[in-house]
């Protein structure tokens, strides 16, 4: 059975997360329902990252084994037709080797986290970014973030529900940029690693927001990391601002 | 009674438009309900532009007469509290003279129209932009738009329901720009005039999209304008991409 890889965009708001659940709408459930409309073997999908409830994606990657040898473009068009009106779209599709795996073949994951700095509630970006009312000091946030780069025990920044065997991860990059958005100044925190622990990005963002707003000093991030104590973490940032933006493979599957 | 001006942002999707209606949710209705929670005289609001169903705003301006002499910042905070969970936010508030009028004192209105050029349905921008699947030739669109600048009889580009006495309007500027959006190339058409006819912007955008996709030549826009015939207009562009972005006054009310 030919294996296909899909690059998927979704708005996480109406979903309980990527993972299929019995009683709640999930991205995986919606995607598998669309696949079942095209293929009576009802293919199952595996994703590179199991995003939490309310978390979005610009570039989730998943794979499935299909009964027929579809043309990838026609397959993506048919899936987009059957996915409507769910806020999920296939933005890339490719045939891959039988042993290629969206999760295990991934060599790098990229997330972005969007914060909008303004007083008024968000309107156009509601659910799509974290509104932070206090002005943020980006230089302080960057100084704090620098302590997290490299290989560390990230116990402080992982959910107590995290199922990873080891708290050891290598964070390759954290980039914090600001741009003018029509709704106010938008701060983007982009992170890059081979893989992440559960809630790692939102835990880091919540802690860096405290640094930016002056509740912590940049060096406090170092102390929090070294404490290996979940209690030393800032409040976990809301899912609204988090997007799985890119998953990389070698060789690349999508241009 | 002191008069206050409000700068308002809203997502037009859940509303039948700005204007209050008996049986349908409207932005004006939601705004007046919030005002009534603060002021038992139940102040009415007048807006600079009566946007249609599904049309958004970054910078609508409206005014109301309040029974009390509010501090503008506290008034905007109280209104934002009572507007929840409607996708409407007050992003500016100022006390103005008794004869100042959001509609009649306006000297210029700015709209933007957002198109996203891509094959897949929109996800994050669903309802917030017009997805155009065919690639667009921006140079051709700019050439076509140039014929519309200046004072013309815009009968071709006005709704048959338009209530303005004269079809004569002066279009000061149309700027067409492209920028990379995470979801695909985004084309923004920004227009500026003292005032607009009903459906004028969406009629112009629908016609320019036909030029961009090669269905019309740029010079056909000139012929359509000169025909003063509604039938010569392209399909009216959907409301999703349209935003009232700025209203200007002399002197300015909001920074």
Q: What this model shows, in words?
A:
- By secondary structure, chain A is an alpha+beta fold.
- Chain A folds into two domains: 3-105, Pseudouridine synthase I, catalytic domain, N-terminal subdomain (Alpha-Beta Plaits, 2-Layer Sandwich), CATH 3.30.70; 108-246, Alpha-Beta Plaits.
- Chain A is built from five helices and ten strands; from the N terminus they run βαββαβββαβββααβ.
- Chain A has helices at residues 27-38, 72-83, 138-146, 200-212, 218-227; strands at 3-10, 46-47, 56-65, 88-96, 108-117, 130-132, 150-153, 168-181, 184-193, 242-248.
- In chain A, strands 1, 2, 3, 4, 5, 6, 7, 8, 9 and 10 form a ten-stranded mixed sheet that branches.
- The radius of gyration of chain A is 19 Å and the shape is globular.
- The two termini of chain A are 24 Å apart.
- The interface between A and B is medium-sized, with 27 and 27 residues.
Poorly predicted runs of 5 or more residues of chain A: none
- How many separate helices of chain A? 5
- What is the CATH architecture assignment of the largest domain in chain A? 2-Layer Sandwich
As a percent range, the share of strand residues of chain A is 25-35%
Q: Biggest interface, and residues per chain? A: A-B, 27 and 27 residues
What characteristic shape of chain A results from the CA principal axes?
globular
At CATH level 3, the topology of the largest domain in chain A is: Alpha-Beta Plaits
CATH class of the largest domain in chain A: Alpha Beta
Radius of gyration of chain A: 19 Å
The H/E string of chain A reads EHEEHEEEHEEEHHE
Oligomeric nature of the chains: homodimer
End-to-end Cα distance of chain A, whole Å, is: 24 Å
Number of domains of chain A: 2
Taking all residues together, what is the mean pLDDT of chain A?
96
